[in-house]
Specification:
Helix content: over 70%
Oligomer: single chain
Shape: globular
């Protein structure tokens, strides 16, 4: 089943979209680890990270004399607001519980997006896909179970990660909708600016308020713009070439990589249950991608 507004980009664009999604997920896995050492409170980290992103994208837009129309801006607003709220909740969760747990919980986005994928975007959702999602959830549960004895784990942090996951699910769905009306770069430029406005009140009212970061903190902020920020641009571009059931399921590939990076750079221990859960998740994601390639080969197109 496909929607009436389909993209006829051919197999090459679809393959490029899958590669972009995979690269975005890898960037986000690295960003999960980069956010923890930054010596800034969560809301302040979100604010300055968005300040830098907004400045960079605005400068490029101005240099290329690109403009965004009022209808395009309105189309971007819901996703951009969700993005700002996501950043505040996500960074607070990262600093409150294990990085692996946050990554695993946020990656549950496909569970939330299955219904809009069917109803709004007309994407095929079969029993096989639901079985793969269930397997991925089982793997996620194993990872969370294995993390319960890690010293940096906290229920509050896990709860914040759930809130972040809901915001991110909304951001992805609204972004896919907006990409029907606006280019990837223009969308991202608007998203950073609006998200900055959203994060300003929390940054002013929490954690002692705003103060200008020192040189070391700016390095961490810049790394977050360069690594996970590039992931956002890649995923935004891919929304027009990849089904949202696939791009959201691909998020489940980030936690196993995050788990390994957190063990290497943050000394977070890895439990046997986490390893088993990670393997199950990766196998489920691989199954979803394989299913998507088969569907695209049959139909020769991807839903917008």
């Amino acid at each position: 089943m496909t929607s009436g507004s389909e993209l006829r980009g051919g197999g090459d664009w679809h393959t490029a979209g899958l590669l972009a999604v995979g690269t975005a997920v890898a960037c986000w896995a690295g960003g999960n680890v980069l956010a923890r050492p930054a010596d800034l409170e969560a809301a302040q980290l979100a604010f300055w990270r968005l300040v830098l992103s907004t400045l960079i994208y605005s400068a490029v837009m101005a240099s290329r004399k690109r403009r965004v129309s009022w209808p395009q801006l309105r189309a971007c607003l819901p996703s951009a607001v969700m993005l700002g709220l996501w950043y505040v909740a996500f960074y607070e969760a990262i600093k409150s519980t294990t990085v692996t747990n946050v990554a695993m919980i946020v990656s549950l986005v496909p569970v939330v997006l299955i219904w809009p994928a069917m109803r709004r975007f007309g994407e095929p959702v079969s029993l096989k896909l639901l079985a793969l999602v269930a397997a991925a959830l089982a793997g996620t549960a194993l990872v969370l179970f294995g993390s319960a004895s890690v010293p940096t784990w906290s229920r509050r942090g896990d709860a914040l990660a759930v809130v972040a996951m809901l915001f991110f699910a909304g951001q992805m769905a609204f972004a896919k909708e907006a990409r029907r009306r606006i280019g990837a770069f223009e969308f991202q430029a608007v998203a950073w600016g609006v998200a900055l406005v959203v994060t300003t009140p929390p940054a002013l009212l929490t954690g002692g308020g705003l103060s200008f970061p020192d040189a070391e903190a700016w390095l961490w902020v810049a790394s977050l713009v360069a690594v996970p920020g590039s992931g956002h641009l890649l995923m935004t571009w891919a929304h027009k070439h990849v089904r949202i059931t696939v791009s959201s399921m691909a998020l489940l590939g980030a936690p196993p990589l995050t788990m390994v990076l957190a063990a290497i750079f943050l000394d977070e221990p890895i439990r046997a249950a986490q390893v088993i859960g990670g393997v199950i998740v990766i196998a489920a994601v691989a199954g979803v991608v394989r299913r998507d390639l088969q569907i695209t080969a049959r139909h020769g197109r991807v839903s917008a």
